[in-house]
Design goal:
Number of helices: 21
Helix content: 40-55%
Strand content: 5-15%
Bound molecules: glutamic acid
CATH class of the largest domain: Alpha Beta
Strand order of the largest sheet: 3-4-7
Number of domains: 4
Structural class: mainly alpha
CATH topology of the largest domain: Glutamyl-tRNA Synthetase, domain 3
């Protein structure tokens, strides 16, 4: 096993956004490509943002996509536990180490005091930051006497521990996507490392865990780039700089139109999924359908996501997960934001559906068939799928676009009927119904021969006959081969559909 160890480290604060799935995927691909290890770590130190069910959701979403961690909660591994709340006891020691080294300090400012400061700054159109320019005027162990600090700590007064960012330094690190990145330390705030109650913040827990879990690469969203200087300082202050992981910050996923990051509410706004699976939130606004419920094949979703920010440098677009892993390289991840293109997502899905056979598709379509209350055999469903697969992009399209293969026609294309149905040809079409009924064997090939024979015997044209037959059977000019449909529906059903349709066509043409 290689020394590549990567982690996907979501916080269980709600449903996992599709951007999170992409982050997981890129981590997974690097691990798979290098024979490394893909770890799931649940970062649940922020109790105020904890949402019950979110961890389960994350696990199910990864499972649905087929990107399975080799270490993680419920999976095991040598570096557990993999839930930060279960590691709580380990972090205090490192906060103390920071204090002892003069790289962190106790802060006693209450949230009311800090809020008042924020307001005051705002009124001057400035932003308050707890940093090297303000900390000397605030209530902390840098400004209070040693004895006062001791007293406050001993009396149990609430405090936080803040990272002491040095003044007037340039802090540089390498990002595998962006190259060399430099921040000025005066622009970097003194982030809280340990909260009252001894719970670490994300920053401390993340670095301690990445260190002890021997993480080699941190691949995460761009929103974490501005936290990276803090992280680099943490590695330095804790004496772990030599084994600091490599960083790769992924480009943002942008809205399809307009500006900005694709948000969780954009799904409802644009009418497409932005979550892998459905999520039942506390409110309706916070409840969503996922890619699964929209009818996506997870392999197509992964293929689509892989290309949101990465490209193989060739024309090839369709990649299985194994092929993605082989082709993947962090260096080919782009810097600029990737537009979420739903049409492209559907195109991928279509390619994946087309590549499957009827039996495979039937398994995927079955839940949607049942949801509609249709009862059909596996064999029948497989045939429907086979004949429809070139005409769908989402799994429910099989039942929605092809509903007439599961129940009678609900609506006829009247416009075409008005043009094509001639009541004086009723007798000929009755004859056609008889010929169809007598076709033996009752299969597509024979039916085609019968109808073609009818056309040449009557002197009618294909254009006179086919639209009538097609609409009588399915109601629409769109759809699979008419002979395949007739063969599938069977003698009796076809006879009854033709009878019903002719009667209706007469009504329509009389009403003109
Ligand atoms: N817990 C962070 C998140 O929710 C992880 C960021 C990181 O990967 O360092 O995205």
């Amino acid at each position: 096993m290689s020394s590549v160890r990567v982690r996907f480290a979501p916080s269980p604060t709600g449903a996992l956004h599709i951007g999170g799935v992409r982050t997981a995927l890129y981590n997974y691909l690097l691990a798979k490509k290098t024979g490394g290890t893909f770890i799931l770590r649940i970062e649940d130190t922020d109790e105020t943002r904890y949402v019950p069910g979110a961890e389960d959701y994350i696990v199910h979403a990864l499972k649905w996509c087929g990107i399975l961690p080799t270490e993680g909660p419920g999976i095991g591994g040598d570096y557990g536990p993999y839930r930060q709340s279960e590691r709580k006891a380990m972090y205090g020691k490192y906060a103390q180490q920071l204090i002892d080294g003069g790289n962190a300090y106790y802060a006693f400012d209450t949230s009311d005091e800090l809020n008042a400061l924020r307001k005051e700054y705002e009124s001057r159109k400035e932003t308050f930051r707890y940093d090297s320019s303000t900390r000397d005027q605030l209530k902390n162990s840098l400004t209070l006497s040693e004895s006062e600090v001791k007293e406050r700590l001993e009396s149990g007064e609430p405090y936080t521990i803040r990272l002491k960012i040095p003044r007037d330094e340039s802090i540089q690190f390498n990002d595998l996507v962006r190259g060399s990145v430099t921040f000025q330390s005066n622009e970097v705030d003194d982030k809280i490392m340990l909260k009252g109650g001894g719970m670490p913040t994300y920053h401390l827990a993340n670095i301690v865990d990445d260190h002890f879990m021997k993480i080699s690469h941190v691949i995460r969203g761009e929103e974490w780039l501005s936290s990276t200087p803090h992280h680099v300082y943490l590695y330095r202050f804790l004496g772990w700089e030599d084994t600091m992981p490599e960083f790769a910050h992924l480009p943002l996923i942008l809205k399809p139109t307009g500006k900005g990051k694709l948000g969780k509410r954009d799904g409802a706004k644009f009418g497409f999924p932005v979550f892998p699976l459905s999520w039942e939130g506390a409110t309706e606004e916070d409840s969503f359908e996922g890619f699964k419920e929209f009818g996506f094949d997870p392999a197509a979703v992964l293929n689509f996501l892989a290309f949101l920010g990465w490209n193989p440098g060739t024309e090839q677009e369709i990649f299985s997960l194994d092929e993605l892993a082989e082709a993947f390289s962090v260096e080919r991840i782009g810097k600029s934001g990737a537009k979420f293109d739903y049409e492209k997502a559907k195109w991928y899905n279509q390619q994946y559906l087309m590549a499957k056979n009827g039996e495979e598709l039937a398994v995927m379509v079955r839940p949607f068939v049942e949801a509609k209350g249709y009862e059909v055999s596996d064999d029948y469903l497989a045939k429907v799928c086979e004949m429809m697969k070139e005409r769908v992009s989402l799994i429910p399209d099989f039942v929605e676009n092809g509903y007439y293969l599961f129940e009678g026609v609900k609506e006829y294309d009247e416009k075409t009927i008005r043009k094509k149905w001639k009541p004086e040809r009723q007798e000929s079409f009755d004859q056609l119904a008889i010929l169809i009924n007598n076709a033996d064997p009752f299969n597509a090939e024979k039916l085609e021969a019968v109808v073609k024979g009818f056309v040449s015997d009557t002197g009618l044209s294909f254009g006179d006959v086919f639209p009538i037959l097609r609409i009588a059977i399915s109601g629409t000019m769109k759809g699979p081969s008419v002979f395949d449909m007739v063969a599938l529906l069977g003698k009796e059903e076809v006879a009854s559909r033709l009878k019903k349709a002719y009667a209706y066509f007469n009504e329509v043409s009389q009403a003109v």
